[in-house]
Specification:
This protein has 288 residues and is an alpha+beta fold. It has six helices and 14 strands.
């Protein structure tokens, strides 16, 4: 049985805005223009997640860090929740790879949550999204506090994940996305689908997941939303000798790469249906 997956977005990736523009100024051949919107009036984003993974030192991070954050951000968090793995001993997280990066404690405020495990910290922002400028400030504020505790010996990686639902009336299908999928001689369009792939881009790995059709029930809503779920997780692994400085210096670049991947996965008519507000024009080479 033969299968073919074509992700046109793969050919559009480069390290950041500036390097991309420099490289494409010398590209010859057919090109298409794709605008990267500053924002969408019809926001498809369900959740944005920033996460760091690390090796700990001195003491269990999940035991100490929640109290430090609660004290540092006095009066900010409205609730503290012990998650299902909270009662396991720290040694279990060292020897079971399935548990190593599992969160144990969640601190919540409004539509944001900080999750803490023995080898991870994340900041989650649910809909309504505050926008990148504010999310960036929240991330760097949290990261600096975690850095200053001295509990982390070495950063392994950091990542930005954006989970979006492109709403659609039935039949929900892949026509919303820049994807062509043939499997065993069958061209898939509206068939139920779950797709996961990894795309490399210099120091980044983008994990792309697509679920069609998908239903999402948001808090406070009686009826679920339906459409195509697109999950883009952009991971920046740390090389030997790299640490917090690299995180702060490349955070904005990783965000742009993640954002660019999301939009290059959408067909132009899908982007238009989300009512984009564009702030710049970036030229991309056509995939042939």
């Amino acid at each position: 049985m033969a299968g073919r997956v074509k992700l046109d977005a793969r050919e559009h990736l480069r390290e950041n805005k500036e390097s991309w523009s420099r490289k494409n100024s010398q590209v010859r051949g057919p090109r298409v223009e794709l605008r990267i919107p500053a924002r969408l009036k019809k926001e498809p984003l369900l959740e944005a997640v920033w996460e760091i993974r690390f090796d700990a030192v001195k003491a269990p991070v999940a035991d100490l860090l929640p109290g430090i954050l609660y004290k540092t951000f006095a009066g900010k968090f409205s609730s503290v929740t012990r998650l299902p793995f909270a009662d396991l001993l720290a040694v279990a997280f060292e020897h079971d790879p399935n548990l190593r990066y599992a969160p144990k404690i969640r601190l919540e405020v409004g539509n944001q949550a900080v999750q803490i495990g023995e080898h991870m910290v994340s900041l989650n922002c649910r809909r309504p999204y505050s926008g990148w400028a504010q999310f960036y400030r929240d991330i760097t504020e949290l990261a600096k506090v975690v850095q200053e505790t001295g509990l982390i010996e070495r950063l392994e990686r950091f990542s930005l994940k954006y989970i979006d639902l492109i709403e659609s009336e039935r039949p929900v299908g892949l026509s919303l996305l820049n994807i062509e999928l043939d499997l065993g001689g069958h061209h898939l369009t509206t068939e139920p689908l779950q797709l996961r792939t990894e795309l490399r881009e210099n120091t980044l790995t983008h994990i792309i997941q697509v679920i069609s059709p998908a239903q999402v029930l948001l808090h406070g809503q009686g009826e679920p939303l339906e459409g195509v779920l697109e999950d883009v997780d952009s991971i920046r692994s740390m090389e030997q000798g790299e640490s917090w400085d690299v995180l702060f210096q490349t955070l904005d670049e990783v965000h742009f790469a993640c954002k660019r991947m999301f939009f290059t996965m959408l067909r132009p008519e899908t982007i238009e249906s989300l009512e984009p507000e564009c702030e710049g024009l970036h030229v991309y080479e056509t995939v042939t």
